Amino acid sequence: MKQLIGRTFLCGHLILVLWICVRNTALLVGDGHTSLPEWAHESAKRTQSAIAEVHARHAEALVFLDQLWTTYEHAAGIDTGYGFFAPAVPNASKLAFEITYADDYSEYELPVVSDNATGLRLCTLLSQLPRIHYEPLRELVMRMIAYSVWQRHPTAKRIRAVVGFIRVPPPGTARDIDIADYEFQYAYDFTFDTD
Amino acid sequence: MGLQLLFFCFSLRASWVSLFESDPTQPVSRELSEAVLNAQSHFIPRLGWFIEGGAALGLSESTVLNITFALLLSTGFLLVIGLFSRSAAVAAWFLHLCAIKSANLMTYGVDNFATIGLFYLMFAPLPDRFALDYVRTKTPQRNRGMADVCQRVLQLHLCIVYFFSGLTKSLGIGWWNGTSFWRAITSPPYDVIPAHTWAILAPALPLIGIGVLVLEIGYPVFIWLRRTRFIWFLGVIAMHVAIGLTMGLYLFAFVMIVLNFAAFGSNVFPFLDKIRPSKAGILQRPRRS
């Protein structure tokens, strides 16, 4: 009996893994990041909307169950799909700060991390930022990063966080060009009050 | 998985406290990560629970974080030597989960795969025959059937992982013409080897890109066929070794190799299943009867 329960649980677990992978693939197609034809994007979008609608219709009644479900996904490490570097490898992001003082003197700084492992994690965050569709959250993350810079420069009048991406040279020209190209994406201006 | 935990702790040893404490000089705070987590579910484990508990006992945030780090390190060590295997597996899974979820805005593949490995380890019949627990008590593994089921689930899980990883890559043009592979190895922070060194590979890039797709999409089929199992296993291990060495993703490479060995190691190298520790604790090959 114990074994049967164990096997049933593990079967259910695998079905959940499969479902999450299918859902994430549909999301990828729906977002239009793939080379599939337009009808495939539209179908994936319609499927997403249908699932979201069903979810929203029962969201209030099933809020507790939904939270338990999400917790299980996180606890088992299956909350995300496995589309690493898919369908294409994005350009690496770069973040720089322009720190302007009251006398309009400006200096530039890069984010400071204590070791390589944290640096790699910060790069992950920067590459994920464009995928945060909820703008206030994206701004909040940027504000926190800028705030950490302001802590080191409390007399600064304005901190401008500039996000861009690094365009690596194409394979053919890599022999000649050793410095990657940098292209502006977006910027946020933040002011912090000493009080 | 114990080694993976030790490497994880080692990689974050210098920044552990600064990464998780409420320090405004840090780029992304634990509070923000946990607030985002709250939006998904209030029940997802996090370090904030320990810090709140510690505060109730009068312990400072950094003290609690240092204790958590020491505990995580200890569970990794216990898993490596196989002492108190079950308790160590459960504690390791929980502490590791708390840590990565408290930094969930900065997590990447390795954290998910480590969680997957630790999750299955909790259910796996323990101790295995190399564990100190086994040498100490001489108690045979009680539930061999469950061990097989756990291994089968891990095998199927890896098949799903590789298939969908390959499938989603194949939906873009980049992996077919090699540009995605090129970007993966030359974009910061993965540019361990300078781009001009890789330039000699330029004509072979589409072939390498397609090779990755074939290896990943073909995994759920060719890893089961007796004739192709060895070559596929070797191919996947080689791919992960290359990812580790050329992109600097050592932890990711290591956890994937561990999971592949745990899932298919005994199928590819059947003699591994027969090696048993001697009385002195030294590994012995099976004798021919």
Quick overview:
The complex is a heterodimer of chains A (195) and B (289). Chain A contains five helices and four strands, in the order αααββααββ.
Which features does this protein show?
heterodimer; A: 195 residues; 5 helices; 4 strands; 18% strand; extended; B: mainly alpha; two-stranded antiparallel sheet; 15 helices
Largest interface: A-B, 77 and 80 residues
| Order of SSEs of chain B | HHHHHHHHHHHHHHHEE
Note poorly predicted spans of chain A: none
Write out the strand line-up for the largest beta sheet of chain A, numbering strands in chain order: 2-1-3-4
Mean pLDDT of chain B: 86
Structural class of chain B: mainly alpha
Q: What portion of the residues of chain A fall into strands of 2 or more residues? A: 15-25%
Describe this structure as you would to a colleague.
- The complex is a heterodimer of chains A (195) and B (289).
- Chain A is of the alpha+beta class.
- Helices cover 48% and strands 18% of the residues of chain A.
- A 4-stranded antiparallel β-sheet of chain A has the order 2-1-3-4, with helices on one face.
- Chain A starts with a helix and ends in a 5-residue tail after the last strand.
- Chain B is mostly helical and 289 residues long.
- Chain B is built from 15 helices and 2 strands.
- Chain B has helices at residues 2-12, 16-20, 30-40, 47-56, 61-81, 85-101, 109-123, 132-137, 144-170, 174-177, 179-186, 195-198, 205-222, 226-247, 250-268; strands spanning 276-277, 283-284.
- In chain B, strands 1-2 form a two-stranded antiparallel ribbon.
- In chain B, strand 1 (276-277) and strand 2 form a beta hairpin.
- Chain B is globular and about 65 Å long.
- The chains are: A alpha+beta (195), B mainly alpha (289).
- Chains A and B meet through helix 1, helix 3, helix 4 and helix 5 of A and helix 3, helix 7, helix 9, helix 11 and helix 12 of B.
